[in-house]
Automatic annotation (TrEMBL):
Keywords of this entry: Transferase
Role of this protein: Putative gamma-glutamylcyclotransferase.
Family membership noted in the UniProt record: Belongs to the gamma-glutamylcyclotransferase family.
Cross-referenced SUPFAM superfamilies: Gamma-glutamyl cyclotransferase-like
Domain Gamma-glutamylcyclotransferase AIG2-like: 2-59
Membrane-traversing stretches: none
CDD domains given in the database record: GGCT_like (cd06661)
Protein name, as recorded: Putative gamma-glutamylcyclotransferase
A molecular function (GO) term: transferase activity
Species of the source: Chlamydomonas incerta
One Pfam family linked to the record: GGACT
Length: 82
């Protein structure tokens, strides 16, 4: 999936300073590889990591509205979803 610069900017804002974006080359099941961007947790924020698995449902119920309210109108999806 190719993302526009604006879409990458929205993701960068979401991930914030705790992460950096890196380009990797994962190997697929068929042996081929491709370039992909991933967000990697910075070591300086390691103490903030939680042991519980991340849940989209929990994030949406508890954090979605606050996150969307931080975006500029042209940077957010009209429905407030990614």
């Amino acid at each position: 999936m190719d993302l526009s610069d604006k879409e990458l900017e929205v993701l960068d804002v979401y991930e914030s300073e705790e992460y950096y974006r890196a380009t990797v080359s994962p190997v697929l099941d068929d042996g081929s590889s491709l370039k992909a961007d991933v967000y990697v947790w910075k070591d300086t924020y390691r103490q903030m990591l939680q042991l519980e698995p991340w849940s989209y449902e929990d994030w949406f119920a508890n954090h979605h509205d606050a996150w969307v309210s931080k975006l500029t109108p042209d940077g957010a999806h009209p429905e407030g979803h990614m």
